Amino acid sequence: MAKKFEYEKGKMVPVPSHSIIPERDVDKSPILECSHLGIQFGGLKAVDDLNLTVGRTEIAGLIGPNGAGKTTVFNLLTKVYQPTMGTILLDGQDTSGKTTVQINRMGIARTFQNIRLFGNLSVEDNVKIGLHNQEAYSMFTGILRLPKYWKQERTAHERAMELLSIFDMQDLAGHKAGSLPYGAQRRLEIVRALATNPSLLLLDEPAAGMNPSETAELMENIVKIRDTFQIAILLIEHDMNLVMGICEGICVLNFGQIIAKGTAEEIQANPAVIEAYLGKKKEG
Predict the structure, then answer these.
(1) Does one domain contain both 79 and 127?
(2) How many CB atoms lie within 10 A of CB 276?
(3) Domain-embedded: residue 2
(4) What does DSSP assign to residue 30?
(5) Which domain holds residue 48?
(6) Number of domains within the chain
(7) In this predicted model, what pLDDT tens digit does every residue of 31-67 receive, in sequence order?
(8) Does residue 224 sit in the same domain as residue 94?
(9) Contact 240, 274 (CB under 8 A)
(10) Are residues 212 and 130 in the same domain?
């Protein structure tokens, strides 16, 4: 029988931007503030007038039917797409005109619906790739293998092993990433994202392909990551047990527009959300 994971979520309170964030975060500025965010492809508004606030240590959810625009929102936040309207503030800084690399350095890391690991590289090397923005030696130092290079390599090895230990994966450090079971590859992708030292972690369907036991373990680890690193996590997920179990604030998207915001209890009881997922009841 699959184990069930439960934890006590933070109380949500209103903030001046007409959003709610965990009470523990009210004395700190939000890590993410999106105002009137949108993007248009030709005549199609893929995301329209999206307003979203995420507290500094909040576990937040972005849900909605297939095709609602959820991954497009992630692509806007990470500058895969440049918004055609609205603003994104990350830790109070406007991200307009930034590149994907610059956004990562500013503090956003993400995983993808489809796993994007370097399958022929070792588990440890995949994590080290995530540490690239913290390297402090020059190309010249690296080519000649000067003492500073070896010092950085030792530091990177220690950090990679420390991060892998979050998921008890340190013993797999030498294995090829592509040889890992599906669930372990999912976990490795999260570890690699954490290696970039984010303040906001975006998880795109992290439970996809997992069985109930693996999903319960993932829920536990997401909370562990938030508590250990004191970061915010925004996730897209179709597994409603996961979303309702750990997400504190939930935003529901349909046809590119927000149709509801609130706690798990409020979202579950919202008629617009029920209609978006189940369709409108026929009268008579």
Answers:
(1) no
(2) 20
(3) no
(4) -
(5) 8-107+198-284
(6) 2
(7) 999 999 999 988 889 999 999 999 999 999 999 998 8
(8) yes
(9) no
(10) no
* 3-state secondary structure (DSSP) of residue 93: strand
Residue finishing a domain among 169, 195, 221: 195
Comparing CA positions, the residue from 234, 189, 242 lying closest to residue 211 is 242
Of 168, 164, 174, 222, the residue nearest 195 (C-alpha): 164
Written as one letter, the residue type at 225 is I
Kindly report the backbone phi and psi dihedral angles of residue 157, in degrees, each rounded to the nearest multiple of 5, phi listed first. Answer: -60, -45
Give, in order, the Cα–Cα distances in Å from 117 to each of 78, 99, 204, 212, 262: 18, 21, 15, 24, 34
Question: Per-residue DSSP letters for 172-222?
Answer: GTTSBGGGS-HHHHHHHHHHHHHTT--SEEEEESTTTT--HHHHHHHHHHH
> Model-level pTM?
0.88
Question: For residue 234, which of 109, 59, 117 has the smallest C-alpha distance?
Answer: 59
**Residues in a beta bridge with 32:** 54, 90
- Quick one: average pLDDT of 19-23? 88
Q: Distances from the Cα of 140 to the Cαs of 105, 128, 143, 148, in angstroms?
A: 23, 19, 5, 11
- Strand segments, DSSP code E, in the chain are 12-15, 19-22, 32-41, 44-54, 59-63, 85-90, 93-94, 108-110, 200-204, 232-236, 249-254, 257-262
Question: Residue 14: which pLDDT band, with cuts at 50, 70 and 90?
Answer: confident
Same domain? For 214 and 185 the reply is no
Q: What is the pLDDT of residues 228-260, one digit of tens each?
A: 999 999 999 999 999 999 999 999 999 999 999
User: Which of these three, 167, 195, 223, is where a domain ends?
Assistant: 195
Residue 142: pLDDT above 90?
no
Distances (CA, A) of 223 to 99, 119, 168, 210, 254: 29, 27, 15, 17, 27
| pLDDT at residue 284 is higher than 50 | no
Per the rule left: phi > 0, alpha: psi between -120 and 50, beta: everything else, 256 is left
